[in-house]
Amino acid sequence: MDILVYLMAAIMAGVCGYWIFLIKSMLYSFRLTPYLDRFEDTSTESPRVSIILPARNEQEHIRQCLDSLVKQDYANYEIIVIDDSSVDATGEIISEYAKKHTNIVTVSARPKPDGWMGKNWACMEGYSEATGKLLLFTDADTRHAENIVSLAVSHLNSLGLDALSAIPRMKTLDFWTRITLPIISTFLHTRFSALKVNDPANKTGYFFGSFFIITRETYHKVGMHSGVRYEIIEDGALGKKVKESGYKMRMVRGEHLLSAIWARDGTTLWNALKRLMVPMYLQSKGVAVGILIAMAFLLSVPFVMLGASIIMPADTMSAKILYGISAASCVLVYIAAVIELRASLQLSVLYAIFAPVGGLVLISGFASGLVHAMRGMPVSWRGRRYSLNDHSQNSVGL
User: Fold this and answer.
1) What does pTM read for this prediction?
2) How far is it, in rounded angstroms, from Cα 181 to Cα 119?
3) How many Å is the Cα radius of gyration of the chain?
4) How many other β-carbons are positioned within 10 Å of the β-carbon of residue 311?
5) Is the pLDDT of residue 129 over 90?
6) Are 276 and 363 in contact (CB under 8 A)?
7) What is the spatial distance between Cα 322 and Cα 16, in angstroms, rounded to a whole number?
8) Are 167 and 256 in contact (CB under 8 A)?
């Protein structure tokens, strides 16, 4: 019995070590990632910027987004707003703003062709009307500081970049997202760290769809959104293509200048989790299953082992060691959640209490996405259903 307990303690020591690695990576990312508004400004040009804003059924959020965009202090820009077959009041709101602001160009997206994701098609429809040398893509649920376009252009020009993406502050509207997103972000800081994106020697490339600016020439040469038309995580796929094509890109922190909504409610959270897993499975079935098992292990085993060690006889050294290491692993899970809640999401640390529940939601959502992919079931996103079985996915570099 002692041998088995010591074996479990050794496994938990490995889990504990990996959580230390995750927290260390997260702290490095927060400390070393450059900021959008901290750079040596040597830019002397103000090229025309085309802000491309796709919107589908966004009547609850698009006013705040447009209010933040029409107030930009950058002089030479246009806002191309695409109504992507909305069935709510989105189109009427866009028309209302266009009547008041001459730099707003309205586009009604034509019906989506087969083989396209909706947002990808809407972005291409907007690009067809763009006149700018620089293209800035954003989302209808995003709010921007008044100087963010000026900062992005100056940052891009001063460093001679081909593309720049800013990390937004993720706004959370419901309890389930507030307890789940800190857990997801802990892992993303390691896999999609801005430090990797900014390292020319690293192959990791990624864009945040809520804010990335790219030169027209670069966008055209990497194939535009047409080149990622099958991708359900189109921003990741496009950023990956830019990096792999050898263009100079940078990811910066912009939480104090930019906010976006990751999930609107429990239903969209659930669909978003499935949406993350499906492309991983289609790219590599074995790796996707392995990732799910690994995450389930890291998030659940510490608490299971802690419970098991509590009910074991406490008079043995092996039980005491297992209890100590399991307790330390559980504490590290809570520490990771607290760091993310305070440093990035700017939410109360009290939500960290529910970290085990958030981990369970994450595992369940990923497992559901895996089952969807295995069965060839369509994925629901923004009121549309997509069957991805006939299309490879390259949005995440596994």
Assistant:
1) 0.92
2) 23
3) 22
4) 8
5) yes
6) no
7) 12
8) no
Q: What is the mean pLDDT of residues 132-138?
A: 98
What whole-number distance in Å separates Cα of residue 336 and Cα of residue 25?
11
| 250 three-class SS | strand
Whole-angstrom Cα distance, residue 212 to residue 194?
A: 13
Which stretches within 86-206 are classed as H helix? 90-100, 118-127, 148-158, 175-191, 194-197
Q: Would you identify the CATH topology of the domain 40-158+201-247?
A: Spore Coat Polysaccharide Biosynthesis Protein SpsA; Chain A (3.90.550)
* Confidence grade of residue 198 (pLDDT, cut at 50, 70, 90): very high
398 pLDDT band, cuts 50/70/90, is very low
Mean pLDDT of the chain: 92
8 Å CB contact between 77 and 51: yes
Length of the chain: 398
User: What is the DSSP pairing of strand 143-144 with strand 258-261?
Assistant: antiparallel
- Domain ranges across the chain: 2-28+268-377, 40-158+201-247
Query: Which amino acid is residue 250, in one-letter code?
Result: R
Closest to 332 measured CA to CA, from 7, 29, 21: 21
Q: Which residue has the tokens 């008079």?
A: 315
Type of residue at 241 = K
Distance of CA 58 to the CA centre of its chain: 19
What's the Cα-to-Cα distance from 307 to each of 20, 233, 292, rounded to whole Å? 21, 38, 23
Q: What is the DSSP letter of 129?
A: T
Query: Terminus-to-terminus CA distance in the chain, angstroms?
Result: 39
Sign, CA dihedral 239-240-245-246, equals positive
Query: Which residues face 132 on adjacent strands?
Result: none
Residue 96's pLDDT band (cuts 50, 70, 90): very high
Give residue 319's pLDDT.
86
Please give the backbone phi and psi of residue 381, each rounded to the nearest 5 degrees, phi first: -155, 125
CB 174 within 8 A of CB 269: yes
